[in-house]
Design goal:
The complex is a heterodimer of chains A (117) and B (113). With 117 residues, chain A is mainly β. Chain A is 0% helix and 55% strand. Chain A is built from no helices and 12 strands. Chain B has 113 residues and is mainly β. The chains are: A mainly beta (117), B mainly beta (113).
Chain lengths: 117, 113
């Protein structure tokens, strides 16, 4: 099966705390891509990052960082010094190739993060 | 501004009526997608289209139909055959093959009573 598991459904933290969102994936492909999206209360999904399976370097963008480990099939997302504006639902996704040769994304069920002041 | 527009933001219909949700993009993207989001379910793919005049069923296509007559437009019709149509519908587009990231519209919240 090709799927994404976000075991945490909801996390609540106090502002300035660090928080890590877990993502575990399963795929039979040797080449694949992983994504993180943010869905604020307005509803529109915002693209955060794309990572290909050949690049295991960690990535940092401001307060956001991502840790990709093929050995454990994980692509975890850490927010440092969280802020109220980080409150949202976060989705991890995996690109897969269909039998017909098309590409599509498989999403995890999402993790709701609430950052309290 | 380049982006994806979905209209309307909220839509109410009576059971038994077909309803069409609009999705337009001016990003010159080849691929377009429709997702359904229910509470606690994440996003599930309804239909997708890699090029004009071609589209494929996603994971939950039953009760839905689409068309892709123009590159910038990918309307979704929710038919009366869809048993539980009340949901949040999201449209997305991407550059196409190559696992490019998808960009999403603001969504349409459909309520059927």
């Amino acid at each position: 099966a090709q799927k994404v598991t976000q075991a945490q459904t909801e996390i609540s933290v106090v502002e300035k705390e660090d928080v890590t969102l877990d993502c575990v994936y399963e795929t039979r492909d040797t080449t694949y891509y992983l994504f993180w999206y943010k869905q604020p209360p307005s509803g529109e999904l915002v693209f955060l990052i794309r990572r290909n399976s050949f690049d295991e370097q960690n990535e940092i963008s401001g307060r956001y960082s991502w840790n990709f480990q093929k050995s454990t099939s994980s692509f975890n997302f850490t927010i440092t010094a969280s802020q109220v504006v980080d409150s949202a639902v976060y989705f991890c996704a995996l690109s897969i190739i269909t039998q017909g040769g098309s590409e599509k994304l498989v999403f995890g069920k999402g993790m709701k993060l609430t950052v309290n002041p | 501004d380049g982006g994806i527009t979905q209209s309307p933001k909220y839509l109410f219909r009576k059971e038994g009526q077909n309803v069409t949700l609009s999705c337009e993009q001016n990003l010159n993207h080849d691929a377009m997608y429709w997702y359904r989001q229910d509470p606690g379910q994440g996003l599930r793919l309804i239909y997708y289209s890699q090029i004009v005049n071609d589209f494929q069923k996603g994971d939950i296509a039953e009760g839905y139909s689409v068309s892709r007559e123009k590159k910038e437009s990918f309307p979704l019709t929710v038919t009366s055959a869809q048993k539980n149509p009340t949901a949040f519908y999201l449209c997305a587009s991407s550059m196409g093959r190559g696992a490019y990231e998808q960009y999403f519209g603001p969504g349409t919240r459909l309520t059927v009573t």
